[in-house]
Amino acid sequence: MLEMMVVVAIVLAMTAIVIMYIPQFRDRSALDLVAQEIAITVRSAQVYASGGKIPAGVTESRPSYGVHFSQEQETDKNRKFFLYTNDLDNIGFSSDMEGLLGTFKYNLRGVTVDDICINSTNICEVENIDIIYTRPQLGAKIYTDTRDEGETADSTEIYIKADKTGKQKVIIVRSNGQISVENVEN
After folding, report:
1. Contact between residue 62 and residue 135 where contact means Cβ atoms under 8 Å apart
2. What's the CATH code of the domain at 141?
3. How many domains does the chain have?
4. Global pTM?
């Protein structure tokens, strides 16, 4: 009887420890999934542009594709991003495009776009970023909200943060077409 009570106590202690860490595991998993979804969406824009995908209702023969991120704290814009067909001479995303054919909105649940940086530096005062792919190049044209016409960044880092735990991930997109997801040490 004493041995059975010891075994039950050990099992209960192990169960309590596992239950205690489930919320942290769930938040970390959700952050990983969102980071991968963002990376896959950026890669999709690249593949669509290089493959010449033509969505219904688009008149241009080979449109470019872009992904738009916003990091404005006053609104809910930092909780969504857009994959869009850019058949307007590569001008980037505008709020008029939301809801148009060829524009897809992705909502971030439990995660926000925390920061957007360019060129692997400490220039992180960027509110909007457009990553545009045109055919036949596989490289990205990265435009910021303060861009001069024709001026692009070499890379961008999009930091996302879990609402509950504050953990962060960074999605790095380089102009040569490379996309990666990395952990951020907190």
Report:
1. yes
2. 3.55.40.10
3. 1
4. 0.78
